Amino acid sequence: PKKKPPADFRLSPVGREIFKKDGCCGGRAPLARARHPAPPPPPATPVLIFGAGHVGRALAAALAPLPVAARLIDSRDEELTRATGPTTLTAIPEAEVRAAPPGAAYVVMTHDHALDFLIAAEALSRRDAAWVGMIGSRSKRASFARHAARAGVDPAPLVCPIAATAPRDKRPEVIAAFAAAEIMAALLTPARALA
Fold first, then answer.
1. Is 166 a member of any domain?
2. Quick one: pLDDT at residue 195?
3. N or C: which end of the chain has fewer CB within 10 A?
């Protein structure tokens, strides 16, 4: 491309005062222009959402415009057909945890507590997750902690219940909004891996 000559700009009275010190006279200053491509955006962090029920679908929708790559994972085809965005139908959801890249985030909200525990334990045992959260209550977290201890997994990094700061509102979209904020806050923190 052809290089453009510097543009010549007339300075305001304040600008003339500033440039007087540097020997600029006449109230004019040259300004060179150049195009520099913007750096590419960082790769989107994968957010694997296990469970395509009402809250899972609402969370995927809440995360859709954000700089993450959300994907709904479920063993129930009828739930995934109601979803928009990327989905994975699998009979072995914990295999998706094993196949995920380092630094992924995991949200566990299936229809089965035993499956939730299996997926959460698998995600925590990787030790390279950006965030691991599970829908539930304090008693579900306590049950998971006992399960994790038997499996030799540290339950401390698990966020459960997710969206705990939400008012006692059970609407899926409200829970999803608070969970999405929680996930994004964790992902945008500089030292985010669970190492």
1. yes
2. 43
3. N
